[in-house]
Design brief:
Blueprint: H1 20-24, E1 26-31, E2 38-45, E3 51-55, E4 61-65
Antiparallel strand pairs: 1-2, 2-3, 3-4
Length: 87
């Protein structure tokens, strides 16, 4: 096109802003993949918003890359997952 400039439509992304309560840790319920067991955990998000990590009552920890999260629910929508649909 006449007069078009390269790079004019460059996309500017804002940095991820992780709420302070998630950096410090919040209480959540975690369903295990292989059963219907629910475990209370303290969930944290790293300051860059790349990883979720949590610890249970026994101080056992686990880590998950946030891009692998398929679904998250809160309030009245946070019901027990159906068998075969547990994440």
């Amino acid at each position: 096109m006449a007069g078009a400039q390269a790079g004019v439509h460059a996309l500017q992304l804002k940095p991820v802003s992780v709420p302070e309560n998630l950096k410090k840790g919040s209480k959540f319920m975690k369903w295990d993949d292989d059963s219907t067991t629910v475990t209370p955990v303290t969930l944290k998000v790293d300051p860059q918003g790349l990883f979720l990590y949590w610890a249970d009552q026994n101080k056992e920890t686990d880590l998950l890359e946030i891009s692998l999260v398929k679904d998250a629910r809160t309030g009245k929508y946070a019901r027990n997952p159906k068998v075969g649909h547990v994440l």
